[in-house]
Amino acid sequence: MKKLISTPLALAILIPLASAQTTWVGGFDSENFANSSNWSSGAPDTSGNTGTINSGTPVISANFTANINQSNGAVSFVSGGNNTMAGGTWNLTGGSFDIASGRLNINNDSVFTVNGGSVTQSDSEIAADSFQMNNTSTVNLLSGSFDLTGGRFNQRTSTVNVDSMTMTVGSYYYGINGTPDPILNLSNGGSIVANTDGGANGEFRYVNTSTPGLGQVSFSSGVSSITAVSATRIKSINFDFATAADGSFINVASGFLSQLEWETQWDDGFLTVDGGNTGDFGDYFTVSDGLLTFTAVPEPQTYALMAGCVALLALGIRRRK
User: Fold this and answer.
1) Domain for residue 146, yes or no?
2) Which of 28, 52, 58, 115 is the most buried (most CB within 10 A)?
């Protein structure tokens, strides 16, 4: 005969199985993020002790591996720090994350998500990468602010998803030898702006000089865009536009391709629509003054529906007469 476990006993069994939480309290060792005394239940990790930051001013001065949920507070890097997130997740839903004059490396399956709050670089330096991605890491930009004005974002490999917000950088470097190939997804109005503020050169650059076509830049839905002052080796990038991305564009003042060059990219398969290049370049794209604009062509069934509507309208008019 099976015995029922009482509710208090069941809770006593389940509670230890739940993921532990440790909350930032601060007050020790110059607010050092790695000092376990600054956390309510020891330093956070990726083995069940998830860190929560909802106040305070943690300072990152060394490499770290942890799962962090930040809803408030002001996280910053020690001046000139070159620190690596070597695993885990960082979910920013509020507060601020300031790289200052340092560099954040995202490695080893790490996931950095911005869904509120702000990522900044208060003391930028274009001579070095401000934010660098390696291995199979992921950056998700969903809402809030991501502004590395004057700094350089280097997507060597990995995946970047920019959805419904603008990513502002001094320069965007994309693609270098490594695994996996870089994937950049722009959707629902997600945009990248590389500008010259803060001494940056506003460049969108394909880094690899010997192997073209690593990875893909995709425009998947809504009017998404890339805007830069200049572009380097843009011919080496695979661009794909989904039909749902009607109106999306690439706008580059210097280093842009002529219409003939874009047509060659289309013919060579570096520029595609829904993963292919059926039809002519002019069916989907227009080129003018450094601006490539995508216009979705209705599917055959859409034309059939439109024709049917016109026919019904004509029939109605005839009957009225």
Assistant:
1) yes
2) 58
State how far the Cα of 222 lies from the Cα of 227, in Å rounded to an integer. Answer: 16
Give the total number of structural domains in the chain. Answer: 1
How far is the C-alpha of 120 from the C-alpha of 102, rounded, in Å?
11
d(CA 145, CA 215): 26
Q: What is the CA radius of gyration of the chain?
A: 25
Q: Can you tell me the distance from the alpha carbon of 260 to that of 266, in angstroms, rounded to the nearest whole number?
A: 10
Q: Please give the residue range of the domain that contains residue 157.
A: 124-320
Q: How many CA atoms lie within 13 A of 314 on its CB side?
A: 6
Residue (of 90, 237, 126, 244) closest to 175 by Cα position:
237
Per-block average pLDDT, block size 10, for the chain (321 residues)? Answer: 44 49 97 98 96 98 97 93 95 96 92 97 74 94 94 93 96 84 96 83 91 93 96 95 97 93 96 94 95 82 46 53 53
d(CA 258, CA 286): 11
Asked whether residue 18 is domain-assigned, the answer is no
**CA dihedral for 252, 256, 259, 261, sign (positive or negative):** negative
Residue 132 covered by a domain: yes
